Amino acid sequence: MNTAHPFQPEYFINRELSWLEFNARVLEEAQDESNPLLERVKFLSIFSSNLDEFFMVRVAGLREQAFGGVTAQDVPADGLRALPQLLKISQRTRQLVKEQYACYNEKILPALATEEIHILSGHELDKPQKKLVNEFFRQRAFPILTPMAIDPSHPSPRFHNQGLYLVAMLHRTSGLGPSDLFAVVQLPHVLPRFVSLGAAGENTFILLEDILTLKLPELFGGYEIAHHASFRVTRDMDVDLLEQEADDMLQAIEQRLRKRQHLEAVRLEVDERMNRDLLGMIVEEEDLHAKYDVDGNTYSEIYRVDGMLDMTSLMELTRTSMREHLLYKPFVPRQPLGLRVKDDIFAEIADRDVLLHHPFDSFDPVVHFIETAAEDENVLAIKQTLYRTSGDSPIIRALMKAAENGKHVTALVELKARFDEANNIVWARQMEVAGVHVVYGFMDMKTHCKLAMVVRQEGKKVRRYVHLGTGNYNPSTAKLYTDLGLFTSNKFFADDATALFNFLTGYSQGHQWTKLVVAPQNLHRQTIALIDEQAERARAGKKSRIFAKLNSLVDQEVIEALYAASQAGVRIELVVRGICCLRPGLPEISENIQVRSIVDRFLEHSRIYIFGEGAKKQVFLSSADWMP
Asked: Does one domain contain both 242 and 163?
């Protein structure tokens, strides 16, 4: 690779700070008054959910490097080490969270009230509403709640990750117990966060924590409530597997899930009214950094907020306050001709390749493909990769049905799909009982490809039908994510698909790929080669172009190859939804590179890579981003 300039750290955007700017674009959707009101509420919830995962995984990893003695394998291309990154992340996160709460308090709540959707505080209740609160507390909440005192005989409980708690300072007025103590109450997940205060169809609510605040004197009888506040702890949830030391991946993942309950805190969110004593108790218990000097700046893991903690719960409000005019108009996907339930799906695929674009094209044909194969007496085998799927998955039920019908069924279940591990373990065990051959992939790599193959006896010949996708086999998210799926019976695709399954299940290698490019064997190398090929064409005065639509662009070698191609004169268009470490528009470095990001009603999830123009154009669909 020839470059006119050595690539300096300032030519790269920090990965974590780039991700925060992606989440800022999600917040912009909540702030955009042209969006329906309840959709704006959803975007506030998504912003919080995204931020939670970011802290549980990315910030947790940086914290390990900064304070836990774990050394990073490589210095990032931008040159920013762990502790300075944490400081910048903290500063930007505080700005965004401040904007989020300003949006909620100053824009969303008044707009909800205009639409007769009210969220009341305890002092706003009238007499009938107070009666409803009393009934809810007595009949539903009180039997579940566990008030916990904290003193030498009652040590502090282990605060659950993302659990919401009320903490109080108590002063004894009568009965047994210390004269002064701390106490906590966890808000149970089994109770609604937004408690209805009206008849059916009415939209008046009170937050669960406001009810419990009103009832603290009853929960701690004999004590006076001197002070109270709410808080929420976010923990490190990115536990590494035992790599090759584990004999059984299923067992290793189950141990990993249990270990998650005992990991370090990485963030503490508190009510801005929380006093110093209560805050100090929690900070000391969780060993958090309240004030840590970084080059004269203060880094803190404490986040004070003005309003309800845990805005992920706002998604609950959107489900209980259904008003059609406050939501996007219902979207009905197109049913592709020839692939409907009454059609012969195998005859259609044998006749021609079919490309589906979800959610604009229905995902039903993909489900129908597997369900039909499960019942078809001519089908001999089904092979499929499963990364993330829905809770009540029709595809997994069809695979189990196929096995029960005597077909040879193999499912590669990726147990390392982050935060879906427990769900995947349940499905894996059920499929094994039904007779499906369940494989768990490689211990030290994640199986991310999306692939299904049906083997069918047709007369004296055996034909293979293949589905390749950029997204997950999940009918629920297929209504919300933009993805591409290809149905084909093309022999070259089928040969490659067969070889790929053999590689995944038995390490079988040596196949000469014709249609698929597979990681880690040659995907990275061929990506660089395709970029370099366009650069050579540009240098030779030939037409050249690179277009890429992807979720994330992080890999340093790919970015440097794109910079070199830009310098050679290649026109490069990038649509990057999330992280983008490439810095476009740098004079003499990336002047020919345009980067856009799309955040809208549907989650942009498809990956499309195009190299060249006209007859020389090569088009790839992928489940892979340009990540290391």
From this structure: yes
